[in-house]
Amino acid sequence: MADFQSEKALVRDYQTALDRAPAGQSAAAIAPFMSADVDWRGMHPFHEQIGAAAIASVFWDPLKRAMGPLQRRPDIFIAGASNQGDKGAIWVVEMGHLMGLWDQAWLDIRATRKLAFLRYAEFNRVENGKIVQSAFFCDLLHILRQAGHIAVPHQTGQFMISPGPRGGGGLLYAPQAPEQGADTLYWIDRMCDNINVNRAKFASFEDELADTWTRDMIWSGPTGIGASYTIPRYIEQHSGPFRARLADRQFNGHIARVAEGNFGGFFGWPNLSLSNSGGYMGQPANDVQADMRVVDMYRREGDKLAENWIFIDMLHYLNLQGLDVLARLREAQG
Question: What angle do CA 5, 7, 11 make, to 5 degrees?
Answer without folding.
Answer: 115
